[in-house]
Design a protein that fits this description.
The protein is of the alpha/beta class and 361 residues long. It is 35% helix and 19% strand.
């Protein structure tokens, strides 16, 4: 695995290498005696079959089913004075738990639950959706060694495979073990699966040829979204290209106007849930998945790296389900929308629902 040389310890920043057989045996002997812990303080109870260790010898990262566990909280230490405590925020845990327990599991219809909840899967809409997926490829280098997909999830759409078709490796970054296991099944040896935090990538600077991050950044805590994008840009080498697909949500004037009555109902429902939670003695209603959308102006102010804005898809799933139907020229309407996006990519990216941030180093 020559590509291990591009990795680094997310805690100490030291280079990583594979554990030797004798080191694995020594660690398992310590485990049997209760002398191994995760850095979050939990005792290590699972035998180690393979793993990486920092060249400084401080932290060990297990490899399970060819998935590299590079979250700081999952690092293994052999003394209590190396324990760092739980560093993963509640919002990140919410996202991780949702996708491990629900999002990347297949429904009875054969779709991932994430797509079933968040996408328009009606047959007549698929041509439009596919053409939007294909847009991403225009802004990437056509080939290379490393394409990073952050967060890859389970590579739930066949269209997503094209982005790394002419790359040697696809680095799948995610916090969901379930999602990465699906990636490994689909890509085999082409997949480098890193269970890690996008805001602290365990990859050395200027190592990859391209990156994509599709419908992910807004699931990162609001104050860390710019950090995540900067991390992707940091690992991109000179001449590399990358794409981030974002969601303006309530900052999209076109969707606000077209869905005003429905957004009003949603606002009232949200307030009622909050009131019910308060009446039940809870601080706030429980959430299934963290989401926060910044406006364009926020990124213009805080993202101090050059980027271009174009449209990925100007209409939201609620818009499609309200205004487009197979029995009322739905396919024709979506074709017209697509032509508008092709004609005015910046305006549609700025005022529509889903923009693409385009980067080149």
């Amino acid at each position: 695995m020559e590509w291990i040389s591009i990795l680094k310890c997310p805690i100490s920043q030291a280079d990583l290498r594979q554990l030797t057989v004798s080191e694995i045996n020594d660690l398992n002997a310590k485990l049997a005696n209760g002398q191994l812990w995760q850095t979050d303080g939990k005792p290590m109870t699972t035998p180690i079959e393979n793993g990486l260790i920092g060249v400084n010898g401080k932290y060990i990262y297990p490899i399970i089913k060819e998935i590299f566990l590079l979250l700081p909280d999952l690092a293994i230490v052999d003394s209590k004075d190396k324990i760092l405590g739980d560093s993963l925020s509640d919002d990140k845990k919410l996202v991780k738990d949702f996708y491990d327990n629900r999002g990347w599991h297949v429904t009875e219809k054969g779709d991932y639950e994430d797509a079933d909840i968040f996408e328009d899967l009606r047959p007549f809409a698929q041509d439009y959706i596919t053409k939007c997926h294909n847009r991403v490829n225009r802004y990437l280098n056509p080939s290379g060694t490393y394409m990073m997909d952050a967060a890859s999830g389970a590579l739930q759409y066949q269209d997503y495979l094209q982005y790394s078709e002419n790359y040697k490796y696809r680095i799948c970054v995610d916090m969901s073990f379930q999602g990465l296991a699906e990636c490994k099944k689909k890509l085999g040896e082409k997949a480098i699966c890193l269970l890690c935090d996008m805001t602290n990538l365990p990859v050395k600077s200027e190592q990859i040829d391209g990156f994509i991050s599709l419908n992910t950044i807004y699931h990162i805590p609001k104050d860390e979204q710019v950090t995540a994008i900067k991390e992707l840009y940091r690992v991109l080498h000179k001449g590399g290209k990358g794409v981030v697909v974002y969601d303006w949500y309530k900052h999209s004037p076109w969707m606000n106007m077209s869905l005003l009555p429905f957004r009003g109902v949603e606002f009232i429902r949200h307030r009622l849930r909050g009131m019910a939670a308060k009446a039940a003695g809870k601080d706030k209603a429980s959430k299934n998945l963290y989401f926060f959308a910044h406006p364009y102006e926020y990124f213009k102010k805080h993202l101090d790296i050059p980027f271009k804005l174009v449209s990925w898809r100007s209409v939201s799933v609620p818009f499609m389900k309200v205004y487009t139907h197979s029995w009322f020229f739905g396919k024709k309407i979506l074709e017209k929308i697509y032509r508008k996006e092709e004609k005015d990519p910046f305006i549609c990216g700025l005022k529509g629902e889903y923009p693409m941030f385009i980067f080149e180093k």
